[in-house]
Amino acid sequence: PSTEGHYLRRVLVTGGAGYIGSHVVFALQRTQRYKVVSIDNYHNSYPKALSRLEEIARSGLRADATETEKQSTVIDAYECDLTNPADVRAVFEKYGKGGIWGVVHIAAWKAVGESSEIPLTYYHNNVTATIYLLQIMSEFDCTRLVYSSSATVYGTPPLVPIPETTRLKADSPYGQSKVVCEAVIQDLMHSSNMAAEPKRWRAISLRYFNPAGAHPSGLIGEDPRGRPGNLLPLLAQMAIGRIKESTLQVFGNDYPTPDGTCVRDYLHVLDLAAGHLLALDALAPDSTTFDNCPTPARYKAYNLGRGQGFSVLQILEAMRTTTGFDYKYNIIGRRRGDVPDLTADPTLAEKELGFRAKADLTTMCRDLWNWQTRNPNGYSSD
Ligand code: WQD
């Protein structure tokens, strides 16, 4: 407990410097109920994001902020790779048994196309790392987990909008690595010796649809290393001139969708981050989220989406309007692992977590463009 006797729960965010991770850290700090620890290997992120987050958190403090509230603005950051368990164990050691209350596990490799080229690397970084993390959590009595899963676990879904009851059958090693991790976590939660476990382990998987946008301050945002694989950061970098192209290569327009291009369910990254907070609160001892299930569950999976899909061409049009950039486009062949339509049925998260993704596409594009114009070269500019 800190000086005021008020206890801040310490939460470890893996991938805390990344696009999703940094916005989740922002959401945790804003509540001033959590002390954040970040583990990141900076393979696809920058330490600069963490100092920007401390800047945002300090600017949010009241003049008469208590010691505890000030504590919530400091991020304990560690550079280490989750595939090195000794390094991860050393971080947990620092805080002792029970020192870390929960983990938000976001760090992963996530390029659908790339995963088909280097599947072993994807299984190592996504599955082995998760198993190491769960083992270390067990050793240190850390029994709350929010796991970053993905809509790609559904592969080509039989039904759209997609409910959580849809069978999991991914079409790429990336998506399959998420399916495997969900199974590992679920089996751990329901393992027999857990029944005797006094501290009820609980875990929630959040199946992200397509995160977009940035914190409206423009201080943190999406800045993948190398050429962006994702559509929106690519379009933003084209419009700012960081990528010297004005023609978008569209990966196929022969899909069974209104305009033939793939449809995705884009949600604002801050709405996505808010979903993580709701999930952590649902894991708290006093939460009843898990108890009013048919059988008191220890594991739940929720879609995080808006329930509204936009095609590639609709996104292109939205970014043309936001940036004023005169994009051209050229239809080329399909990208391996792409599926026609990933639109969420968001009702379970709304009902059980109180989750609502409010920001619309215009807001997502506006916040993305604000981040990009203030940081033409992302975090590496200054
Ligand atoms: C969107 C659409 C492309 C680039 C993402 C994440 C993945 C997972 C699922 C997190 C697709 C098309 C893109 C381009 C294009 N999320 N496109 N030309 O494929 O839904 O995957 O969500 O776990 O990690 O990457 O998003 O932004 O890559 O593509 O035509 O140059 O844009 O074919 O239909 P996707 P995306």
UniProtKB/TrEMBL annotation:
<comment type="subunit">
    <text>Homodimer.</text>
</comment>
<dbReference type="GO" id="GO:0003978">
    <property type="term" value="F:UDP-glucose 4-epimerase activity"/>
</dbReference>
<protein>
    <recommendedName>
        <fullName>UDP-glucose 4-epimerase</fullName>
        <ecNumber>5.1.3.2</ecNumber>
    </recommendedName>
</protein>
<dbReference type="InterPro" id="IPR001509">
    <property type="entry name" value="Epimerase_deHydtase"/>
</dbReference>
<keyword id="KW-0299">Galactose metabolism</keyword>
<dbReference type="InterPro" id="IPR036291">
    <property type="entry name" value="NAD(P)-bd_dom_sf"/>
</dbReference>
<comment type="similarity">
    <text>In the N-terminal section; belongs to the NAD(P)-dependent epimerase/dehydratase family.</text>
</comment>
<comment type="function">
    <text>Mutarotase converts alpha-aldose to the beta-anomer. It is active on D-glucose, L-arabinose, D-xylose, D-galactose, maltose and lactose.</text>
</comment>
<dbReference type="Pfam" id="PF01370">
    <property type="entry name" value="Epimerase"/>
</dbReference>
<keyword id="KW-0119">Carbohydrate metabolism</keyword>
<feature type="domain" description="NAD-dependent epimerase/dehydratase">
    <location>
        <begin position="11"/>
        <end position="283"/>
    </location>
</feature>
<keyword id="KW-0413">Isomerase</keyword>
<comment type="pathway">
    <text>Carbohydrate metabolism; hexose metabolism.</text>
</comment>
<keyword id="KW-0520">NAD</keyword>
<dbReference type="GO" id="GO:0006012">
    <property type="term" value="P:galactose metabolic process"/>
</dbReference>
<comment type="pathway">
    <text>Carbohydrate metabolism; galactose metabolism.</text>
</comment>
<dbReference type="InterPro" id="IPR005886">
    <property type="entry name" value="UDP_G4E"/>
</dbReference>
<dbReference type="GO" id="GO:0005829">
    <property type="term" value="C:cytosol"/>
</dbReference>
<comment type="similarity">
    <text>Belongs to the NAD(P)-dependent epimerase/dehydratase family.</text>
</comment>
